[in-house]
Give the backbone structure.
Amino acid sequence: MTEKNTLKKSATLAAAGLVVAGALLAGCGESKATPMDDAYAGNSGETEKSQEEQSQSQSNGSDSSDGSDGSDSGSSHNDPSTTTSDKKDTGNYKDGNYSINGQYGPVGEDSIDVHLTIKDGNVETVNIIGHPFTTISKNHQDDFAKAINGVVDGKPLKGLKVDKVAGASWTSDAFNKALEVARQEASIQE
């Protein structure tokens, strides 16, 4: 094989490698969140209710997970490509429990389930269930879950946003996206 052919082959392989790397990193670091009662979000089985329990309670006409009378369970059926609720944030929030899945990571491989209890427009409690892809992610998610209540409990939901909590910047970003969805889901529509 001549030196010219070897050089062409090397250049072709390098270009192919760059195309593949670019495709893998295209969504690098973008967080997104969806309501967990969304038809496309699924349920990890580790959340407050399993899918089977949810479908049974919904077919019976009642879903008391958000503390409402069952007339509006706060569910939202979105296009799977969107990252927020189809509801508008009115700034006036209904008391209840809200569950949102926040996804993040270089290629979206990590996620957290965010369970919020809202009372009188304030965050009463937060429970985080992590779904890490790596040990490093698990450590960040565990540290975040331990620290987040001290940061947000008792704070108004309106405009709430956290900075890097417990050194977990991507987990914090996913949590902020989940807060956006929670505001939309909890909003009393006028």
Remarks:
- Residues 164 and 172 are 6 Å apart (CA to CA).
- The longest helix spans residues 3-24.
- The chain has a mean pLDDT of 75.
- The two ends are 74 Å apart (CA to CA).
